[in-house]
From TrEMBL:
This is UvrABC system protein C. It comes from Halorubrum rutilum. The UvrABC repair system catalyzes the recognition and processing of DNA lesions. UvrC both incises the 5' and 3' sides of the lesion. The N-terminal half is responsible for the 3' incision and the C-terminal half is responsible for the 5' incision. SUPFAM superfamilies: C-terminal UvrC-binding domain of UvrB, GIY-YIG endonuclease, RuvA domain 2-like. GO terms for cellular component: cytoplasm. The keyword Cytoplasm applies. Pfam families: GIY-YIG (PF01541), HHH_5 (PF14520), UVR (PF02151), UvrC_RNaseH (PF22920), UvrC_RNaseH_dom (PF08459). Its main location: cytoplasm. One of its GO terms (molecular function) is excinuclease ABC activity. InterPro entries: GIY-YIG_endonuc, GIY-YIG_endonuc_sf, GIY-YIG_UvrC_Cho, Hlx-hairpin-Hlx_DNA-bd_motif, RuvA_2-like, UVR_dom, UVR_dom_sf, UvrABC_protein_C. Keywords: Cytoplasm, DNA damage, DNA excision, DNA repair, Excision nuclease, Hydrolase, SOS response. Residues 15-90 form the GIY-YIG domain.
Amino acid sequence: MDADAVRERAADLPTEPGVYQFQAGETTLYVGKAVDLRDRVRSYTDPRSGRIRGMVARADRIEFAVTDTETQALLLEANLIKRLRPRFNVRLKDDKSYPLIAVTDHPVPRIEVTRDPEEGAVAYGPFTDKGRVDAVVKAIRDEYRLRGCSDHKYANRDRPCLDYEMGICSAPCTGEISPEEYAEDVAAVHRFLEGETGVLADPLRRRMEAAAEDAEFERAANLRDRLEAVEAFHGEGGEAVSDRSDDRTVDVLAAAVEGDTARVARLHSERGQLVDRSRHRLDAAAVGDGEAADPTEGAPADPDANTPAAVLSAFLTQYYAEREFPDAVLLAERPADPDVVDWLEAEGVAVRVPGAGREAKLVELALKNARKRGGRDDPVGALGERLGIDRPARIEGFDVSHAQGTAVVGSDVCFVDGSAETADYRRKKLTDRNDDYANMRELVRWRAERAVEGRDDRPDPNLLLIDGGEGQLGAARDALAETGWDVPVVALAKAEELVVTPTGTRRWDDDAPELHLLQRVRDEAHRFAVSYHQTVRDEVATVLDDVPGVGPETRRRLLRRFGSVENVRDASRADLTDVDGVGDATAETIRERL
């Protein structure tokens, strides 16, 4: 559209609040809101940036919808942006991250570092220094010996595991500690995580001093480092994280912009405790000259406004249009669109940009998290954050393939920094049996034993990915426990693309880059396994097909009955003749040829 076409279209529009859409064919290029539709659209006759000029030039028509109020226009704009995903608008995409310390909701709770705590768990955080969090959790387990195993593993123990032997678990699974004593230890851990530093620091200091007196200087130095981490732990926004005198629900938001990508970090506080966190990625398709939006009435909402203030405006409307409002929203800076603030305040939400005190420290923590790179910038890093592990630069994927228990094989593929490392692919023939769980257990045990014994020339991976669901993951974890190979492991179930972890099953956003990475590894493991299975199956078929009197159907019956060519070879003539289509002469020929 040229300026005349825009001017002519604007003249037909009402002077009421509403939403307008620039469209090219059936594609929506941009959605905007207006207090006065006619004035707002007319302002596009003189675009203020090259990017806007390009958007207007591509459009072939302008659609609109009238609303009763400005607030309705604001919400309709947010809903249309999320539904239509116009390329020239800022678009919200979730990208949860940040480590938390969670104590699970279980009669015998476990402690873990996670980005995605299971339902009912008491979570503390978020924290920005994962290394410090890991050190503190190790100190907690060393002192109070809380279990770290999954509920599945806990429920199936008949003797204490290696953690008990190492002194970091009191083995409540086998009754080595009474439920009452374990509950006391859990209560002490809660007191520490809620801010009572001395609960953990004091015994650590005593142990450090005792080690120094006994001239165990290396041990004393290790305890000193651990003590420093513990004492600094609540300094990471500590006084900001906890304030039980505050009974409000509060969201803390900060935005960071890099090129055409923006991230918003959200911290959520209830009754003075940070109970949730999320990070959200927004696509700001227009970045060109970086002009800010004109705050004067009648100027178009500039798609090129790639400032944190503009990002917060877009985020606030899209996020809260479909969620409950908190009592207060704390922001790193004032949103560029004053209508957004008016809307929130009209809904009873207190909107503030704090300058000092506890609220300012919360905003600072959110801003630090918003500036962390992740998501599409680094899907490998995003995967590590999502799973609560170090960046999994090296991932190995496992799958099993067979035909009703015959020609059973396994694949082990490798990805390094998100790319296939074909030189490190491995494959293995497995025991013929129609048991997917046993087959996966054998495959992972084979890899683990080679690693533990130093017989595998490849580096240890940072993550194992199992093709399958809870059963396959459980089998793989059993193999790891039996061999003592300590490597994080998750599974990806095909049917609904669910990510299965030791702590539960999660559904990630379909467009999450970390999910796409897992899918690539899973699909490659499946392809490699199927390819090898076909090779082995063809070899088996050739051997039996060479036997006179054995056709494809008889071959399938033989393999279904005996499981493998080796078993067919070892079968008696009487057993062979029990198979439909195999007479005495054919049975004798099979025994002679094989």
